[in-house]
Design a protein that fits this description.
CATH class: Mainly Alpha
Distance between the termini: 50 Å
Strand content: under 5%
Number of strands: 0
Helix content: 55-70%
Largest sheet: none
Order of helices and strands: HHHHHHHH
CATH architecture: Orthogonal Bundle
Length: 181
């Protein structure tokens, strides 16, 4: 299996920056109980399993860098307010990009991919700049933010659906366990 970390490791500078940022993410996300670091780490693991090896092999280290950053920062707006957190996350990433270890160009890419986990009505995938060339990241090719945003959204929708099914199943278990036979 080709892991996202293996793809990222092709660029040692980006890989090192990512591992430093991931360690700091524990602090950035500490005030979020449900959607904190563990939630983001689970999403990273799911992405690694969801994305087939052939697709991962064709991703650039820069694309993995942006996707992983967006994975960990997609709910950072919940530190401001739960409602509308998708847009708040985008804005917080753009405003506080230096705190997150990103330059301005990187912050734009990460913020847009993170914002893509919003509903299609709020943030259409097609509204993402399809070919974002970021000087410090994409030395050899442009980044496909639509693709990265679609990956994150698809996974988030799948997780939400599974949680709803699980919650519904728990309700059925609770209601039937109180029945008297």
């Amino acid at each position: 299996m080709v892991g996202l970390a293996k793809v990222l490791a092709k660029d040692t500078v980006l890989a090192n920056r990512w591992y430093v940022a991931k360690a700091k993410a524990r602090v950035w996300l500490r005030s979020l109980a449900k959607n904190g670091f563990d939630h983001s780490e689970s999403i990273e693991r799911y992405l690694d399993r969801l994305i087939v090896d052939n697709v991962k092999k064709n991703m650039s280290p820069a694309e993995v860098f942006v996707l992983l950053y967006a994975t960990y920062l997609h709910d950072i707006g919940k530190t401001v307010n739960e409602k509308g957190h998708e847009l708040l996350s985008r804005n917080k990433i753009l405003k506080e990009h230096e705190k997150f270890g990103l330059n301005n160009f990187e912050a734009i890419a990460v913020a847009e991919v993170a914002y893509a986990h919003a509903d299609e009505k709020e943030k259409p995938i097609k509204s993402l700049d399809c070919e974002c060339g970021i000087d410090s990241l994409s030395r050899d090719r442009v980044l496909d933010l639509q693709f990265l945003g679609a990956l994150l959204r698809m996974l988030m929708k799948s997780i939400t659906h599974l949680q709803e099914q699980s919650d519904s199943g728990q309700e059925k278990i609770r209601s039937t366990s109180h029945q008297v036979y």
